[in-house]
Design brief:
globular
Length: 228
């Protein structure tokens, strides 16, 4: 059995907050699976896109085809999120878990269910900032997560056993990161694949059921790279 959609989305939200919350530095740090060198001069000079421009680059129902249903964005949960047993993630700070201090203000997100199944969802997030900030933020959070193969996350009254495994990242874009996240709670278990790709001054994060992530990753990147 798999965890409910609400639980998985809550944890995906935690991962995204951690990603954004740790991106306030200005030096470059490549993450696990990243194959690129430091951003070029031209990349550093590029102007971040607006949230409205990012939203136009998200996948929509017509891109995905038959069987996919758009899932409206849910209100942000007020529950505190606490990391237990992973010092590297804990060092990112509670601000990342609670949403305070977010640095990537330019962002857009879309989520889809496949064939109406609550366990078969895929979400796409787009962020824009300088290439250096994006590289540092992504690298730090993926480094932290894969440094702890097992740990726990407490969200409200729920404690979830977490497992993180680094996986081979597709050679797309300028930098790439990939991992499998396993959530276990109340006898239920769910596996979510998360792939992040930086292309210039945009980072795309695709998360969800592994098969859906693999099936839609390249078309998502192609649209994310499209000219305004």
């Amino acid at each position: 059995m798999r965890l409910s959609t609400t639980t998985v989305l809550t944890l995906n939200f935690f991962a995204v907050l951690a990603l954004a919350g740790c991106s306030t530095g200005s030096s470059f740090s490549a993450g696990p699976g990243s194959s690129a060198a430091a951003p070029s001069e031209s990349a550093l000079a590029s102007v971040p896109l607006s949230s409205a421009a990012l939203a136009q680059r998200l996948l929509d129902d017509s891109d995905l085809g038959e069987g996919y249903t758009h899932v409206p964005q849910r209100p942000t949960a007020d529950n505190d999120v606490t990391v237990i047993g992973c010092p590297a993630l804990e060092r990112l700070g509670s601000d990342a878990a609670t949403g305070a201090g977010l640095d990537f203000s330019r962002k857009a997100k879309a989520s889809f269910a496949y064939d109406g199944g609550s366990a078969s969802e895929v979400s796409e997030e787009l962020y824009s900032d300088t290439a250096v900030k994006l590289s540092k933020g992504i690298g730090e959070v993926f480094d932290a997560m894969v440094s702890c193969p097992t740990y726990q996350v407490a969200s409200g009254n729920t404690v979830i056993d977490m497992g993180t495994q680094k996986t081979a990242a597709p050679e797309l874009g300028d930098e790439q990161w990939s991992q499998l996240l396993t959530y276990s709670a109340g006898g239920q278990r769910s596996v979510v694949k998360q792939v992040a790709i930086r292309t210039g001054n945009v980072v795309m994060v695709v998360s969800g059921w592994p098969g859906l992530v693999d099936a839609n990753l390249e078309k998502a990147l192609a649209k994310a790279q499209a000219a305004s």
